[in-house]
Amino acid sequence: MVDINKSIESLNWTKEPKGLYEPIAYTLASGGKRLRPQLALIGARMFGGNEEEVLPAALALEVFHNFTLLHDDVMDRAEVRRGRPTVHVKWDDNTAILSGDQMLIEAYQLLSRVPESKLPQVLRWFNEMATGICEGQQYDMEFEHRDHVGLDDYMKMIELKTSVLLANALRTGGFIAGANEAQQEALYQFGLHIGLAFQIQDDILDVYGDPKTFGKAIVGDICCNKKTALLLTALEKADPATKAELQQWLLVHDRNEEKIAAVTALYNRLGVRSEVEKIMEKHTSIALSQLNLLPQNDAAEQLRKLAEKLANRKS
Amino acid sequence: MVDINKSIESLNWTKEPKGLYEPIAYTLASGGKRLRPQLALIGARMFGGNEEEVLPAALALEVFHNFTLLHDDVMDRAEVRRGRPTVHVKWDDNTAILSGDQMLIEAYQLLSRVPESKLPQVLRWFNEMATGICEGQQYDMEFEHRDHVGLDDYMKMIELKTSVLLANALRTGGFIAGANEAQQEALYQFGLHIGLAFQIQDDILDVYGDPKTFGKAIVGDICCNKKTALLLTALEKADPATKAELQQWLLVHDRNEEKIAAVTALYNRLGVRSEVEKIMEKHTSIALSQLNLLPQNDAAEQLRKLAEKLANRKS
């Protein structure tokens, strides 16, 4: 079986100019779950595909994902990623911009190594996915400053920013290995809905997860008024008086502990958690239903377990 | 004959989110010579190619070129481009970063429309070119702060930053239209050397051109110690005393007019202009010699005229 971390390590970043390639090596060495290339490989395994044949596309998706993190960190002024200083902190903004650009090009370079007969389709899908992710990041940035954001807007944003990449990873792996059109679509829908479920679970864990196991900063989404599934659901469900109370808290920018306690209490009063859990379960269940359209083999079992693990995760 | 400006206008940028696509439309509407897509079309015409077939690649090269300008302007903190505020000034840095990223993806989207049998090669070349340009921009940024930069380093940098794009435009156009390998290489070499000649001519015109026709700011390369072919040749040719005198002037950051006059006088004393003109003429002549390996038709004649025009341009 292909070892994704080893494959990533074996990409050569010791080239000149070092100022361009060292930040790329640094970014890719920072680990992460390697979920996207894994999904591509599972998609291929499901159809008995040759993993070596799918590997370039799998790696392209991981390099692309890390490119988005690199540039997003510049835009969000994030200083830490996976426990280490971000590239624009360790080096500077220009390095982060240019090395990020080069990572995007490297992703396409990896992609160009997929079997030639599959390349045009894989490239078109990759472009659509990449476009979706840029659009998602743009909406995410706009939402911060926009007065009204509906839950629907939010779902669309996370679909673009997170889900299309998971969906496309599965579909691309399956396609290269010979999945037919209906199966490609089922893989895509599985990835899309598992991505939505994952992101919503993330919102829930930020507020209700055990900080020790969830591993996020104590100052979470509530403190910075992040427009999450919980907050947007609360704003949509609340009667005028409760909504006013909630909006008062959104104006508070100190007293973090007090704010978290008060907003969580409001969420509890409105039954927001179970409401949002229902949405998450809906997406998990749509994802699982797609599995019925796919070969019932070990790879499908792996996807089923992944879906269940995501739905029940504590961190 | 295909109208490049009309083709660019017909690309649809009125999509949502506007915050992502409007800066792209703004950048592409700012004009410029459209030299890169023109070269791709000339390369195709030389081999009787169908212009419509080459157009997507030609547009991809123009969109890519404008992407590099957009991100370079952020990195260089340039405030004006083609007489208008740059994107990061008119909007902000985040917009410039993300819209730039999307432009790079759009370039690949256009590229994916070339005939499928030609796509793998065209994509590989495009990736190599894009990598070269990022490396060139990295060297360019590093040179600013590096003590010693040789003329060779400089030539390598401008080859990467400017020439490979012109070279690849011609080669890609010719390849899609059916040029054989030797012809592809001749087109590439023509573009490479014409690009070098063009860049060196730019350095010469900055100092010796008529500011009225050259249209550049009065405060040119000399004021900001830009490491140009002229300055690097002067530093390499000068005897110790003259070199020390030149280096004294590099420490002056006011008295612009006096500095320009003094450095220009040093250049004249060292015979730098004719030295650099010789390099330029060498590259123009290598470019022209490549034309002998290519079909002697109207397209070749156009390239010959282009080379002569570049070599004799006053602006």
Largest sheet of chain A: 2 strands, antiparallel
Let me know the number of strands of chain A.
2
Rounded average pLDDT of chain A:
95
Helix content of chain A: over 70%
Secondary structure layout plus pairing:
Two copies of one chain form a homodimer.
Chain A: H1 4-9, H2 18-28, H3 35-46, H4 51-76, E1 80-81, E2 84-85, H5 87-90, H6 93-111, H7 119-145, H8 151-176, H9 181-208, H10 211-214, H11 229-237, H12 240-250, H13 256-270, H14 272-291, H15 298-312
Antiparallel strand pairs in A: 1-2
Helix pairs in contact in A: 2-6, 3-4, 3-8, 3-15, 4-6, 4-7, 4-8, 7-8, 8-9, 9-14, 11-14, 14-15
Give short descriptive properties of this protein.
homodimer, 315 residues, mainly alpha, 15 helices, 2 strands
Explained architecture:
2 copies of one chain form a homodimer. Chain A has helices at residues 4-9, 18-28, 35-46, 51-76, 87-90, 93-111, 119-145, 151-176, 181-208, 211-214, 229-237, 240-250, 256-270, 272-291, 298-312; strands at residues 80-81, 84-85. With 315 residues, chain A is mainly alpha-helical. In chain A, helix 9 packs antiparallel against helix 14. The model of chain A has no long low-confidence stretch (mean pLDDT 95). The first copy, chain A, is 74% helix and 1% strand. In chain A, 46% of the residues are buried. The longest helix of chain A is centred in the middle third of the chain and has 28 residues, at 181-208. Chain A binds chain B through residues 16-17, 19-20, 71, 74-75, 93-94, 97-98, 100-102, 104-106, 108-109, 112, 116, 119-120, 123-124, 126-127, 130-131, 134-135, 137-139, 141-142, and chain B through 16-17, 19-20, 71, 74-75, 93-94, 97-98, 100-102, 104-106, 108-109, 112, 116, 119-120, 123-124, 126-127, 130-131, 134-135, 137-139, 141-142.
